[in-house]
Amino acid sequence: MAVIIFLAGSVARDLSELRSAKRDTVQWTLSQVEIEFLDFTLTLQEEIDAPTPNLTELRKDFDVFYSRLVIVSEGRLFGDARIERKFGEATDEIRAFLDRTATVMDSSDEVLLSGLEGILEETLALRPSVRGLYISGLGYFAEQADLLRNRLANTMLQLSAAAGMLLVLLAILTLYSRATNRQLRRQSHALVSANARMETILATSLDGMIVSDSDGRVIDFNAAAERTFGYKLEDIKGKLIRDLIVPEAMRDAHQKGMERMHSTGEKRLVGHGHIQINACRADGSEFPVELALESAQTLDGEIIIAFLRDISERVRTEEELREARDLALAGEKAKSDFLAVMSHEIRTPLNGLLGNLTLLGDTRLSREQSQYQDNMEISGRQLMKHVNSVLDVARFESGKMPVRMTSFHVGQLVQEVLDGQTGAAESNQTALSWQFLGTPVEWMRSDRNHIEQILLNLVGNAIKFTKGGRVEIEVEVNGEFLDFRVIDTGIGIPEADLDRIFEDFESAGPATGGTGLGLGIATRLVKLLKGEIGVESTPGEGSVFWFCVPLQIVEAPAEAELAQQKNAPTVGLRILLAEDNDMNAFVAKKMLEKEGHSVTVAEDGLQAIEAVDDAVFDVILMDINMPRMDGLTATRKMRSEIDATKTTPILAFSANVLPEDKDRFLQSGMDGFIGKPIQMDELRSALETVTVGHVRPMMKGSSAPLPNNEARDLMGDSYDAFLERFRSEADALIDWIKAGDTAPGDVEHHCHKLVSTAAMFGATDFQKALRTSENAAKRGDDDMHLDALIEVWQKTRAAL
To answer: How many whole angstroms separate alpha carbon 384 and alpha carbon 378?
Structure first.
């Protein structure tokens, strides 16, 4: 502080002295101008009055006067003053006089003597200007001196203020320094505590920690590492990690990694997270560890920190989990195999039974026989419904139940559901009705089949538990959803059973012969459509089952009028049948022609492509496995390359009905499926949908056998020839199998080719054996059951 005050005083004194010297110089110069002017004037008067003028003295006084004025008019000290008007005008006037007079002064004595009177006259006239120069100059510089003093005073005040602020800042800095020092002491104490805690954590950590230098020599080895590896820090400090915990088989790779890190700086494991690797204990035993490496710089150089965890137990657990998973997958596979058996081994004879019952109903029967036939057909279809329910649950669990959005008429759908339940309702003396509450919705977009199945389940249940009562469907728009309510006056449901009835294999009412899967399937379908389902019930009064689905209202499609004719008889269609097996083609062609359709046969996919180029067809039945070009390839070409068939319904015509095959058919552009050999009810249902411009995907039929008499009727005189050909083809297959060259792809192809033919001639056991071998070959199983196939054929051939 004393230094700042001293320096400030020195600056003030120096500036004061500088200001005084400048002012004295200005005053002296201005006064000299006036003095020299007066001297020049006096000398001029004396020389005029003198008998002998002394011109030399006169010229000397003039030169001195002139030089004084030059200082004023040109000197830097008076530069700012000359800008001032009075001072500048006086300077200019005097300078002009001097410049005029200088010419005379520099002339000869005669010229100068002759002009002395005039010079005197001008000199006397210049007197006020010289006086004004002096006065205005002194005034100007006095004013500037005041300004300078004020500025210097302000500067000194600012300097003082700055010095004061500096002192304040120094005081603040001193206080801050003291506070920082206290904080540093606290942080130092906290760091010491943290280090102590870290030491405790590392010492008690369950994970091993090993610190080594860049050469891999041990620096630190915590307690967990000692327990894990069986070493003591004092025994191994300074030794190479490689020789302590790296297994023998990995030491060369470890050494190469260390050398690479030293030479190139590349670190493949350091800083790259956790890895699983084997380590070695002191006793030489190896075990799996989870390892993470990090590096850090210290005053002594780079260090490597290794964090290790013994994961032997975790690895054992993971192995057990993998084994459990494999067992679960094996269980799922067994379940899938069981469902495949159910699909093909149970539905096949069941389809055959229902087909025969349908054909039996077309014959002349007595009233009693007709009643028996009706009862058997009802029971068979009920059994088929149970089988399909189980398969639906399996498809839900495997995630293979798709949602297919279509536009449909809501009222027509509800009416069709009630029409289909009329028989069951009449047998229970139950009235059926439906109504739309509020503003009706005609056309909407959703999955029609799923909504239909939900309503069928709910209405079917309502009818089963309602005797002599009423079942009504109410439909109502509820915001962005469409509500369906199935209301019955039946026996009702106890409150304790309201939740569990939606579970699989559960039923709250008396035994009715059902599977208990209907409401479970309905619940899954509603959730699949992003809706909700529930029930309200009062025992003894009835129940209300309700569900809602998102409502997307659409305009009526152009084919709506045709859809009104859905129940009209199927008209004769132009059908293209692509089938490489001429026996299958022959039978299918006969059955289709018997229904009044015109049939063109193509032996493979290429012929089918040629046929659609030459003619227009209403529907195409496409076999899957054909020579030269298979059915899926032909379908894709028809959809993408031929305009005439881009919208033509194409139905897969095959004995292959596995669910994954159905998805494959649909992805290739097919619209549905018909099994081989053709069943009349399935054929009529499929072709009816064609007549109204809407093909619904089907998965019915599973190579059900034709009744022997119907096969004879269809084949006529060719029956025996076709039967002999079937025997020859089957014999050739068996001989080929016995030869031993049985690649899975060839087995699948040859077995598939004979499946439908076997069904055509009633060889059901051989058909089943063929199907079993075909599916095993398709899955790539080692055991394709070929020995069993040979044995079954020997028995079948003897029977044929």
So the answer is: 10
How many alpha carbons lie under 13 Å from residue 791 in its C-beta half-sphere? 4
- DSSP string covering 534-597, please? EEEEETTTEEEEEEEEE--B-PPPTTHHHHTTTTSPPPP-EEEEE-S-HHHHHHHHHHHHHTT-
Phi, psi at residue 538, to the nearest 5°?
A: -125, 115
Mean pLDDT for the stretch of residues 124-136 = 83
Nearest 5°: phi and psi at 209?
Answer: -130, 125
Cα 489–Cα 493–Cα 495 angle in degrees, nearest 5: 135
Q: What is the pLDDT of residue 800?
A: 67
> Residue 600: what are its φ and ψ, rounded to 5°?
-115, 130
- Summarised one tens digit per residue, pLDDT across range 654-692 is 765 555 666 778 888 888 777 765 666 677 777 766 555
DSSP helix/strand/coil, 237:
coil
Q: Are 709 and 701 in contact (CB under 8 A)?
A: no
* Nearest CA among 132, 124, 296 for reference residue 209: 296
Within 13 Å of residue 22, how many CA atoms lie on the same side as its CB? 16
Judged on CB neighbours under 10 Å (0-12, 13-18, 19+), 353 is middle
ω before 510 within 30° of 0 (cis)?
A: no
Coil, strand or helix at 84: coil
If residue 475 lies in a helix (H) or strand (E), which one and from where to where? strand 470-478
Closest C-alpha among 544, 539, 391 to residue 458: 544
d(CA 35, CA 46): 16
Long-range contacts of 292-298 (CB under 8 A, 24+ apart): 293/267, 293/269, 294/270, 295/267, 295/270, 295/271
Contacts of 631 (CB under 8 A, 6+ apart): 578, 605, 622, 623, 624, 625, 652, 653, 654
C-alpha–C-alpha distance, residues 611 and 592, integer Å? 18
**Secondary structure of residue 720 in the 3-state scheme:** helix
Q: What is the CA radius of gyration of the chain?
A: 58
Question: Position of tokens 């899957």?
Answer: 624
For residue 249, the SS3 value is helix
Q: How far apart are CA 753 and CA 655, in angstroms?
A: 9
- Apex 263 CA angle, 261 and 265, nearest 5: 45
Rounded (5°) CA angle 462-465-467: 105
pLDDT digit string, tens, across residues 360-409: 766 777 877 776 776 676 666 656 655 665 665 555 555 556 788 889 99
- Residue 283 · residue 270 · CB < 8 Å: no
**Per-residue b/e over 255-284, b at no fewer than 16 CB within 10 Å?**
eebbeebeeeeeeebbeeeeeeeebbeeee
3-state class (DSSP) for residue 477: strand
Helix (H, G, I), strand (E, B) or coil at 265: coil
**What end-to-end distance do the CA atoms of the chain give, in Å?**
129
